[in-house]
Amino acid sequence: MIRFQNIRKVYGTGDHIVKALDDVSLHVPVGEIFGVLGQSGAGKSTLIRCVNLLERPTSGSVIVNGQELTTLDAAGLRKARQQIGIIFQHFNLLRSRTVADNIAFPLEVIGQPKPQRDKRVKELLSLVGLSDKASAYPAQLSGGQKQRVGIARALACEPKVLLSDEATSALDPQTTRSILDLLRDLNRRLGLTVMLITHEMTVVKHICDRVAVLRDGRVIEQGLVDDLVVQPGSEIAHEFFPRIVPPQQKNGGIFATITFVGTAAEEPILSSLLRKFDVGVNILGGGIETVRDKRVGRLLLELSGPDAAAARSFLQERTGFTVES
């Protein structure tokens, strides 16, 4: 649905060049929620603005829904942008317009007749849970309600792609969760492809199918969240579970870091080890996180005794477990 191929974005000239994006390639599959994670200055905002060419890349290809956007003329680009909705961190609502009129604005721009606009606005207000706020003004709304208006406005022209530019960064944790739940619901109900940028790992944990980690304008890692969280050395795994440094090895013990996903997190694995093997088990650290309603855990164990190596092999062979030294 969205494909970047060798995207570069350079600002400045001569000795004053800044590389905002440096050879970025990624693919956002249709119907998925794709997160781009990075700290301030990583290039996230530049990247998402390249999707609809609000920022035109210095070089490289931007393909959305099968169209190479960088080759379109002005009229073609305007038409393509109708299929790409965007929501913003600070809402960007028109203060002098009611909620209904804010949502209707994109439909006015494309010249849709008023009866059709009114019908569409009514549908969208219901979709985002604001049917009772049609006549309210932005100043009368909470932050979460303003963002719901922004989402409804972004969906007015029935886009196939929805972009989220740090859309929850200005919200409190409870409101953030409700907005993320709404985005996941819209993704499922409407088949929307969602690309969001964030510096918050909680956003990735809660709704993202895939993620790319951006640093200094380069993608340093990308893939399915479920795969990255159990991959040794992964940036995402490290963000979920900061690495625990084992103490100095004593008495021939074996250290093993175990990551377990889904139903494996429910298994009484340590009890199984103690029953099957002549082994001592010392838990040195760990934790459990929830990733899109799926439990993911990590434990650092010290295995000792005559069957320590066999116990470690047993763990490696278990479905749902990843073991690293």
Number of strands: 14
CATH superfamily of the largest domain: P-loop containing nucleotide triphosphate hydrolases
H and E string: EEEHEEHEHHHEHEHEEHHEHEEHE
CATH arch. level architecture of the largest domain: 3-Layer(aba) Sandwich
Radius of gyration: 24 Å
Distance between the termini: 39 Å
Please report the first level of CATH classification, the CATH class of the largest domain: Alpha Beta
Global shape = elongated
Q: Share of helix among residues?
A: 25-40%
Derived from helix and strand composition plus strand pairing, the structural class reads alpha/beta
Average pLDDT, all residues = 89
CATH topology group of the largest domain: Rossmann fold
- Ranges where pLDDT stays below 50 over 5 or more residues in a row are none
Number of domains in the coordinates?
2
Largest sheet: 6 strands, mixed
- Helix tally equals 11
Biggest β-sheet: strands ordered side by side in the sheet: 6-7-8-3-9-10
Share of residues in strands: 25-35%
Description:
With 325 residues, the chain is an alpha/beta fold. It folds into two domains: 2-235, Rossmann fold (3-Layer(aba) Sandwich); 244-324, Alpha-Beta Plaits (2-Layer Sandwich). The protein has eleven helices and 14 strands. The chain has helices spanning 44-51, 74-81, 99-109, 114-127, 143-154, 173-190, 201-207, 225-228, 235-240, 269-276, 308-316; strands at residues 2-11, 18-28, 33-37, 59-64, 67-68, 84-88, 161-165, 193-198, 210-215, 218-224, 254-261, 280-291, 294-304, 321-324. It has a six-stranded mixed β-sheet, sandwiched between helices. A four-stranded antiparallel β-sheet has the order 2-1-4-5, covered by helices on one side. The protein has a four-stranded antiparallel β-sheet with strand order 12-13-11-14. Strand 4 (59-64) and strand 5 form a beta hairpin. The longest helix is centred in the middle third of the chain and has 18 residues, at 173-190. The two termini are 39 Å apart. The mean pLDDT is 89.
